[in-house]
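sanity check this fold:
=====
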Amino acid sequence: MKKTTQIFFVLLTSFCFSQSTDSEFNKMVESEMKSASSTMEVQVNPNTQNYDVTYHDLRFTVNPNSTTASISGVVSTTFTALSNMNSITFDMATQLVVSSVTMNSTSLTYSQSNYELNINFPTTVTTGTSRTVVITYSGIPPTAEGAFTRGTHSGTPVIYTLSEPFGARDWWPCKQDLNDKINSIDVYITAPSAFNSVSNGIEQSRVVVGPNATTHFKHLYPIPAYLILLNVTNYQVYNQQAGLGTLESPFFPIVNYLYPETNTVATQTQLAVTPTIMNLFESLLEPYPFRNEKYGHVQFGIGGGMEHTTVSSMGSFGRDLIAHEMAHQWFGDKVTCGTWKDIWLNEGLTEYMSGLVRENLDGAASFVLWKENKISNITSQLGGATYLSDAGALNVNTIFSSRLSYNKGSMIAHMLRWKMGDVLFFQALKSYLADPALAYGYAVTANFKSHLEAAYGSSLTEFLNDWLFNQGYPTYDIVAQNWGAGQAKITVNQTQSHASVSFFEMPLQIRLSGSGGQIHDVVVNNTTNGEQFIVSVPFVVTGVTFDPNKHIISKNNTETLGNESFDINKAVSVYPVPAENELTIQFPNTITLNKVEIYNGLGQLVATDTKNIINTSQLPSGVHFLKIETSEGIFHKNFIKK
């Protein structure tokens, strides 16, 4: 069982969303925060931190035909004591009434108050000891969080659940913190035999006794309480399969539970892309994390979707929504964010995977448009951080912000890919998902950062500080001008929308064009304001375009074709100034370097070299002078040694 020790407090308030042209996307955000929509204070319950849940046997009885959304259940919980225990506490709505609690067939005393069920043990359960308690209860779950809902579709009653983030306690006694996953579960749902029941994992049996049917599901992977679901109505099953069909990647089932009125050719046509997306994700990431069981969809009464493990709840079947909820099986279900401050690990990475579906199935132009729409929404406001502050983690509006957690989170993922390169970026994703300390457990941003840096081989602190932890975006002013035969000079200036970032250091793609329709893309690594770059270009430049493929979050950029006349003396330049360990001499590729002489402030020759990259680490601090002998003459430059 994977554990994390982070303690966090969440004040859940009524929600609103950023406006977007993608109504399905907004509905998805809404549904993923649906059970957080009421005003309530929820915290990591200190009374549930002294044990580790290892197994649940969950037996529920529901009847969609009932006029009330009631439930009765028998929940058997096996736990291991992390310290000596004389009692155990579960999260449980006080509207649910417990009728008995037993352990080893012995009745235990208990009490209910303040959304807790407290159970007393007859003797101390010592550290490391495992026990099983059996709780029998019934009642009408509270409706404020919308975690357990009775509705209708085309006049037929339906019961469905959506427990993210803290709704599980509304319909069964559980431990729902982001620090403990249940190793495995068995779920038994008893309902009128006219209905079909759905839960996580593989259906083991369906036994009809009298007017009722009991359906048994088994799920053998670690799962947090909020990802367990119970859905009941007159579902029809539409089966598919996914997998690459090889010895290493065999087929596995995709089971879709559809309302009869929507189990149509049109819906099946929409669902036809599901195996294609699954196979794409397996090729980009790793095998589907729950492939020994199933994947699938179940319809429910909320627009958008919810990533219940092995079976996503769906209000519609658009391709972007199918992709987003499926990607959660890796980011959110296999590896779950360890605090709500790290929600971008669930939502940003997942939304980026839906963008990769655009790129791989529709092509580059569609992917650019996808990024353009994300950037437009992100830059609709000047500030806002994707990694939440302590205060931000108290507000459901910031936790489930479509602009920051989803859209900016997804573009941060893309900018990491742009900076690192495809091979290293996807290597980092794979190692993150495979990390035995994180897999089927919890992760925070520092865990993800360590895998990114291990793949990249260099620090990403500056990048994450600028884009994830701080706020805003850059605006670029790009000036390009012809600079001798076969070359152009590019000057980059930048301003920032928010004072939290002094400068966004990024590789920039700049497209140079010619009068004959020629296009030449160059990438420059921009680290300072006013930075100049001399680049090779095989034609006379007549136009310039900044970031044509939308690799960077930015807004209101300007591109200018400069008309400054070429000056060979200006074309020979040195950087960085001041220099510490290394100085680079930059000049047009039509010039050949013969020799470099370095003089100190007294005019004394202190070093010579024949290369354009000079080691300056041994030079004393102060002003130095360069005599640069080339095929085009002698040039004099000075620089400061730190």
User: Anything to note?
Assistant: The chain is about 20% helix and 35% strand. The mean pLDDT is 91.
